[in-house]
Specification:
The chain is α+β, with helices and mostly antiparallel strands. The chain has helices spanning 13-23, 37-47, 64-70, 76-83, 111-118, 125-133, 135-148, 171-181, 200-203, 206-209, 216-231, 236-242, 247-260, 303-310, 368-386, 400-409, and strands at residues 9-11, 50-51, 91-96, 98-103, 151-152, 186-191, 194-198, 233-235, 264-268, 275-277, 290-292, 331-336, 339-349, 354-362, 390-396. The strands form 4 sheets. It has a 5-stranded mixed β-sheet with strand order 11-12-13-14-15. Strands 1-9-10-8 form a 4-stranded mixed β-sheet. A 3-stranded antiparallel β-sheet has the order 2-4-3. Helix 12 (236-242) crosses helix 13. The longest helix has 19 residues, at 368-386.
Length: 410
């Protein structure tokens, strides 16, 4: 007789949300005192990485998830950890979930990706072709970094005029990015948002570079386990996406972790696919956090999961023509307890010392009399963090009137 499928533990949709919010460090009040390196380390122990993005409508993407979890904090705390002196670094740049800042201890777990990249695998196709077809140019770029680093792309002697090719990069930039993927060079610092490259042995601590390189299979398993810890409860597709693994690598790692008892298969109310629970995940009966979330915050960056988990359809509309946008250019979801209850289109207008809220929309079922005061408090905290004196609330969206009333009552 065929064996019967095991009966999986069932988790309600509300419990799944609470598990996810707690796993991301968004379930409780923020620190009340001075924020220091220990707080930064605790956040990264939960999120595992911070996605980097060049858009700076409010603040650059990697700063915002820390604000959501720590409140107003000194951004130079992150700058020093990522791009400061070698002795004070705790983060490095590499391709984790897109371009990312990652804890140093993850560097050995990503060497398999660097090795694949050196063979033209596991990277964007256009960049892979360029690197493999221009090996002499790539070697010349590496030689210059070795002799002259730290160095930016425009400072290379081999720099050529932009030709409008791959992402508009010139040959020097593409050569350096190929080397970056391959782990031959890393980010020494940034000037504005421009990468400045150097050799890993001149940037990263010897204690990290001397660590043994895990087998690919072991590294994949450890990355999936870290993704599980960051999510709390997740499908295989969710886990795969966190560090952008291939389906083959992810499915094998999940199966191994289930066999080892490091993942527990469960069913989640309303989810079609099997979910996997981190057995160490907190399962709170109530969560009390409130946070404005960046488009690239780990809680919401995978849009299908966000819709499945919160019933919140979220699309970033930066590249949508203005007249076709539903909500706005740079929209932040607002988390209150275990729900995404609203969204706001915001912009930091430094010329006028103002945090502008172009529009505000409440989600179905959210009580505006509860949401508006909590959202105003978050907007005020964000304005203070950004050094902006005023908040200006526009008229777009159903939540705008109660938000203006709440702001006046403060």
């Amino acid at each position: 007789m065929p064996s019967e499928s095991p009966i999986l533990d069932r988790i309600s949709a509300s419990e799944a949300r609470r598990i996810a919010v707690a796993a991301q460090g968004l379930a409780t009040a923020r620190p009340s005192g001075r924020v220091d390196r220990r707080h930064l380390a605790r956040v990264l122990a939960r999120t595992q990485l911070l996605q980097i993005d060049s858009v700076s409508v409010v603040a650059r993407a990697h700063y915002l998830p820390l604000f959501a979890r720590l409140g107003p904090y000194p951004t130079d705390l992150l700058d020093r950890a990522a791009w400061g002196a070698r002795r004070e670094r705790s983060l490095f740049e590499y391709w984790g979930h897109e371009a990312s800042l990652l804890p140093l201890e993850l560097q050995p777990l990503l060497r398999w990706r660097m090795a694949r990249a050196s063979r033209g695998e596991d990277m964007y196709g256009g960049l892979a072709r360029f690197g493999l077809e221009n090996k002499k140019l790539v070697q010349r770029a590496l030689d210059e970094v070795r002799a002259r680093g730290p160095i930016a792309a425009g400072e290379l002697e081999s720099a050529t005029k932009r030709t409008g090719g791959w992402w508009g990069w010139d040959e020097s930039k593409r050569a350096l990015e190929f080397l970056f993927w391959a782990g031959e060079i890393t980010t020494a610092t940034r000037r504005g948002f421009e990468r400045v490259y150097d050799l890993p042995e001149r940037v990263l601590p010897d204690s990290i570079l001397s660590l043994p390189t895990p087998r690919e299979e072991d590294a994949h398993r450890m990355l999936v386990q870290r993704a599980s810890q960051a999510f709390g409860v997740a499908t295989e597709r969710d886990l795969r996406d966190y560090f952008r693994l291939s389906p083959h690598d992810s499915k094998r790692a999940v199966a191994q972790l289930v066999e080892d008892g490091a993942l527990v298969p469960v069913t989640v109310e309303g989810w079609r696919d099997t979910a996997y629970l981190d057995p160490q995940a907190a399962r709170p009966r109530r969560v009390n956090g409130a946070a404005l979330l960046a488009p690239f915050d780990p809680l919401v960056w995978e849009r299908a999961r966000t819709e499945r988990m919160f019933g919140f359809r979220y699309r970033i509309e930066i590249y949508v023509p203005a007249h076709k946008r539903t909500h706005g250019y740079y929209v932040l979801p607002f988390l209150l307890r275990d729900r995404l209850v609203a969204r706001v289109d915001v912009k930091s207008d430094r010329a006028h010392d103002t945090l502008r809220v172009h529009g505000a929309w409440g989600e179905d079922g959210a009580d505006p009399d509860l949401v508006a005061p909590a959202l105003v408090a978050e907007l005020r905290a964000m304005a203070d963090w950004l050094g902006l004196e005023k908040i200006a609330i526009g008229s777009k969206g159903d939540l705008a009137p109660p938000l203006r009333r709440a702001a006046k009552s403060k």
